[in-house]
Amino acid sequence: MKKLIQGILEFRHNCKDEYCSRFGGLAEKHDPDALFVACCDSRVVPNVFASTDPGDLFVLRNIGNSIPPYQIFGASDASVTAAIEFALLELKVKDIIVCGHSDCGAMRAVLEQKKLHPGVAAWLSCAKPSYERFLEDCGDFAPDITPLNRLSQIYVMQQLEHLQTYPMVSEYLQQGVLALHGWWFDLATADVFQYSEKEQKFVLIEA
Ligand SMILES: [Zn+2]
After folding, report:
1. Ligand 1 centre distance from Cα of residue 175 (Å)
2. Which residue of 23, 42, 153, 181 lies most exposed, with the fewest beta carbons within 10 A?
3. What DSSP element (H or E) covers 108?
């Protein structure tokens, strides 16, 4: 906590004035460009690696950057559903980005089939199809990266499929007013990759 408090004091001292005009403009309304789904991992900082400013991204974070499949009754997650509804209906975002990352602890737990605490186990149960695909794939997909990172990339692709089970997402996609993107952040190199349908793999985002 001491480091956090120190950070607040340093921010107030060094950066507050610079940010005040921007925050002031955003106080009553924000108009983000995208819904950004990321992992809770403390090393994943979207606003840093995507060089975004306050107000640019509507961010949903949870363990493993997960989107449980939509179910009208039962186990679909209220937080995820609410974030999607709000992003599409109120903020009218045109893009949803699901961003995984290298060396993800959640993916490691899935890969190593670790015995997890009940809440985490329930949350990560939606990773089962990714793990099965990973086993079936035998390393054909992205053979140049580690098994852990391969599972993580497969998981991002699966979350894009899960997004399409949400009726509103599916409807907006059909209307051509929404696009889905799978991103993957490499912690070691700070490179961001995007899933290419055409190339059937994650490719470096560059000019
Ligand atoms: Zn993670």
Report:
1. 32
2. 42
3. helix 105-111
Count CB atoms within 10 A of the CB of residue 147.
Answer: 12
Q: How far is the CA of 108 from the centre of ligand 1 (A)?
A: 9
The closest of 40, 58, 68, 57 to 155, measured between CA atoms, is: 68
Q: Fold for domain 31-204?
A: Beta-carbonic Anhydrase; Chain A (3.40.1050)
Q: How far is the CA of 79 from the centre of ligand 1 (A)?
A: 18
pLDDT digits (tens, 9 = 90+) for 136-158: 987 788 888 999 999 999 999 99
Which pair of structure tokens corresponds to residue 190? 């700070």
pLDDT tens, position by position, 180-192: 999 999 999 999 9
- The answer to whether 178 and 169 are in contact (CB under 8 A) is yes
Within 10 angstroms of residue 130's Cβ, the number of other Cβ atoms is 24
Please check the confidence at residue 75 and state whether its pLDDT lies above 60: no
